[in-house]
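Friendly challenge for the regulars: who can give me the structure tokens for this chain first? No prize, just bragging rights.
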Amino acid sequence: MELTTFHSSCNGLRFRSPSLPFQAVPWNFIGLAQFPHSLSTCNRHKLVSTATSQSHNPSPKPLSTTCSVANDSSLNSTAKDAVVDPFLAVKKKAMDMSPELKGTSIFLVGMKNSMKTSLGKLLADALRYYYFDSDGLVEEAAGGESAAKSFKETDEKGFRESETEVLKQLSSMGRLVVCAGDGAVQSSTNLAFLRHGISIWIDIPLDMIARGMIEDQSGLSDSEIFASEAYSKVLTQLTNLYKEMRGGYAIADATISLQNVACQLGCDDLDAVTTENMTLEVLKEIEKLTRAKKLMEAAARPF
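First reply, four minutes later:
Bragging rights claimed.
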């Protein structure tokens, strides 16, 4: 499978789909968004980075060691000590729902962050799909990240046309997980392309995204990051961007919020929510959507 864009500034550049190491990988996600997300609500004082790289932890913790169990005197020691293997749960869910999905592509929208990227790759592996990052394809077509930034500044209309062309080609294919950039929700044309598949809003608290961005660049501790001028500046920029993009994100077929996942699992801090937890909830939501579509199609058939 390969993808070719046709904008005049990047004519002839060919994108090749990545080879997928179809191997066991862990995952999870779920929730509804509530604005503002400039500060997380489940734990404002104990925040830890959601992810510091685009790859998942090779040694994920099982749910029982990651999140605290809600107090319930009726729970016996056996239930409390039970360990749920997140990989097995994700693998089973993906296998169960795959026939109903029928190769329908998945588009992930939301603020750019490492959790969204890791989630997309894990989801693709579980479903045996191909993974693409639409922003990455646009940058590759322009000649790299710096060239893409310059292209956007000097010819924004042409840059937006490139984004549209990439989404057009991706939406014409099947069996894809696409991490879509903000350009995907900035025009009715691009939003229409997302309708060729299932769109999911991956909603991560802005303070966690800001902290992750600074942490990747500086290597400072959490306390140093929160006290830095750079953190306040980045958080303000993200908040303004979120306000601008939120309406487009909300058009997605479903929303998966890290905060809601943490609350649902009874986690004491947001960092305890793993990529495994998030992906499992994404799969559950996709399953609901495909079943609802199937019921609607059945109801529309003549007797």
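The longest helix spans residues 275-300. The chain has 13 helices and seven strands. Your move, everyone else.
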